[in-house]
């Protein structure tokens, strides 16, 4: 009988239920349900609509029942850093605020009163991002301290959904590392740091690795969806799942690869067996996030396709509908050479991305892009230039030379960007699979079920199961 595994992957604009099976050494996927996601304004804050999302999670599970494809296990992943605080009744205190909300403004300075940035990096190996959980929790402590006082539990968003499904609270390791409160040396919470920041220690329990059984479904959930299954922790941080699914050519080494997990963000890096918390690494703003098998995801956040997604949405609100493919097509015909620093905070959550890009160019005395094609060209070229810079930094830090880059995730379908990436980095680009996050989520469950002999074999199976497209740089093909 076929064994189905269910991945629920919740991204910035949508969530999906994907069933996976292994058949004759190949992974097969089937998307069975899709729903919308987005931050909702609540009392002046940008928030998760956790209630309606949980209803959608259940809807997708009902779809399994309808199809007669009952999973043996399921797991949920979302983006990192966001969390809920629960009281002793399991109710959310305050709101599930999303990371693009500006409540963290100035919270970095608050944290540095207790621990300077360099020491914080040395202890945690996590890059500074103003939205990291450490700054979000400091915002709670400063603005609504009563919530912290009353809190019985602290759960990252996927841990919260797993709790709603099973009644069991687990804190998953990969996502926990993005709080900037975990030590990469001990692999668990840095209690000294937590205490010095005045955060309640009791909120930080034992960490659980991907592959851990959370539990079966609660009676209520079972009755609603019409079946029972195990909930198994995937790497609940979406990027950790995507990195698990970076394909490995059979026989190749897993230590010599570069990847870009390309979606709303572009997460570009490699894997390290030991975290690099050096000053050089901090200055280049690399992070050491926890990965499967405690392999560190040594990477950098690059603003990514969020910029182009925002432009597309804005144009559509003005009645100008373009697909991503059309924006790429128009961009490829432009000759504008202006470039922006994709990691400038001006692009994190601007009211208008188009205005932000124009303003940036105007301030820097660069040609100001005017048409959708020009704006897209500036964004795509800027991203590829940023990738090239990142390759150089990675090579200088690790002392290795990387010949190719694996682009995985939804953005790996952007052919124009893939070619620009190959051209600017002068490396071969392997694009795919596009469904890396869901595949990675499934891999953790499949590995827990002994479908593969470890991560390397699982990645080789990914290579054999999904189409990967190759792009050579112009220089290489000359
Ligand atoms: C990607 C991602 C990144 C994280 C950012 C915020 O979806 O998870 O890895 O830095 O979102 O959580």
UniProtKB/TrEMBL annotation:
GO molecular function terms attached to this record: ATP binding; glycerol kinase activity; rhamnulokinase activity
The UniProt record lists the keyword DNA damage: no
Domain annotation Carbohydrate kinase FGGY C-terminal: ranges: 258-448
Enzyme Commission code: 2.7.1.5
Pfam families assigned: FGGY_C, FGGY_N
Residue ranges occupied by any Carbohydrate kinase FGGY N-terminal domain in the UniProt entry: 4-244
A GO CC term attached to the entry: cytosol
Record keywords, A-Z: ATP-binding, Disulfide bond, Kinase, Nucleotide-binding, Rhamnose metabolism, Transferase
GO biological process: glycerol metabolic process; rhamnose catabolic process
InterPro entries linked: ATPase_NBD, FGGY_C, FGGY_N, Rhamnulokinase
Domain of life: Bacteria
UniProt family annotation: Belongs to the FGGY kinase family.
PANTHER family: L-RHAMNULOKINASE, SUGAR KINASE
Name of the featured protein: Rhamnulokinase
Originating organism: Lacrimispora algidixylanolytica
Lineage, broadest ranks: Bacteria, Bacillati, Bacillota, Clostridia, Lachnospirales
